[in-house]
Amino acid sequence: MRLLFALPGFHRYDRGAEVALLSVADALARTGDDVMVMGAGAARAGTAYDFHSVGAIRRERFERFPFFPVLRNETAWEDASFVPGLLAAYRPGDYDAVVTCSFPFTHWALRRPARARPLQIFVTQNGDWPAYASNSEYRSFRCDGLVCTNPDFFERNREQWRCALVPNGVDLDRFVPGVAERERFGLPADKPIVLMVSAFIETKRVLDGIRAVSQLDDAYLVVAGDGPLRDEGEALAADLLPGRFKRLSLAASDMPALYRSADAFLHLSLLESFGNVFIEAWASGLPVIGHDSERLRWILGDSGEFLCDTEDQRALVAMLRAALARGREREGQPHGIERFSWATVADQYRDFITGLVAERRSVS
């Protein structure tokens, strides 16, 4: 198959959506598909796919811009700035299918009129509301295939769109239990470490994590992430966790070692579309504390023993204590994680898209 993956953040950020779609693109390219990736970053060595850099203004530049429908947040502004370069580089006839999770501007650009327009595959990495909402710009949403990253999205959309239920994955060669490398990150050797891998935005509830960890006498909180609430978070940590907090911004290559350097993983988003960080932490042997939901239990299975109502601070603090008491696994692949290998996930993408391509050819 000839595939295009397009997203402004490709090769510029290593957050959930970027990591997931690039991992799928790389796995597909390594097993024979012709894959092009377009993003705003620079080319990286060692990728199996081809990469074309498309200019876009960084989302951080838009944090103080006004937000309103269509331009609802800083990532939407970034998405809009990505489109001129994308349109200049995009040749619809070169691909059997195009894949994105960015709506509306990248989605609109990939759907531009063309005599031989490829199949439009939308992935619900950032939510499924474009697929079902009927207000404002969401009325313009169309796709030939919808990849749903959890069962809720699949059930909600299966009647309207051609859907496949496909989880995200994890690199099981990199995210493994092992020896901590705390000195490398400037972390204390004598304190239990709670790790959050979260953007400093409202929905990730990092500030609630700071408040919860402050109730533990000796725990040290590390947050790997950035975002508009970074200054507020650091100020709160200085007040509640003096000497027991560090914020890091790391390259993706450093993340496996950071996970192995922690004792427990905390993520407080109430309802992630999937949450790659959950399975990265699980694969690294960490106990996972998160908000109890059917969706997260579908992901973690029997490893969801430390889920709770995270809006109840007393329950959250108790679960943090229990998770730290258990500590991390130091060797061996955690049971059940193998179903999330990127090779397995990419096979599901290929099966879904090749089926759609075959259907189109059969009626043309």
Descriptive overview:
The chain has 364 residues and is α/β, with parallel strands linked by helices. The chain folds into 2 domains: 2-169 and 341-363, Rossmann fold; 182-336, Glycogen Phosphorylase B (Rossmann fold, 3-Layer(aba) Sandwich), CATH 3.40.50.2000. Helices cover 35% and strands 15% of the residues. It has 13 helices and 13 strands. It has helices at residues 16-30, 74-89, 105-110, 129-132, 151-157, 182-185, 206-213, 230-240, 255-260, 276-283, 294-300, 313-326, 342-363; strands at 2-6, 34-39, 50-53, 97-100, 119-123, 145-148, 163-165, 193-197, 220-224, 245-248, 264-266, 288-291, 307-308. It has a 7-stranded parallel beta sheet, with helices on both faces. A 6-stranded parallel beta sheet has the order 10-9-8-11-12-13, with helices on both faces. Helix 5 links the parallel strand 6 (145-148) and strand 7. The two termini are 17 Å apart. The mean pLDDT is 95.
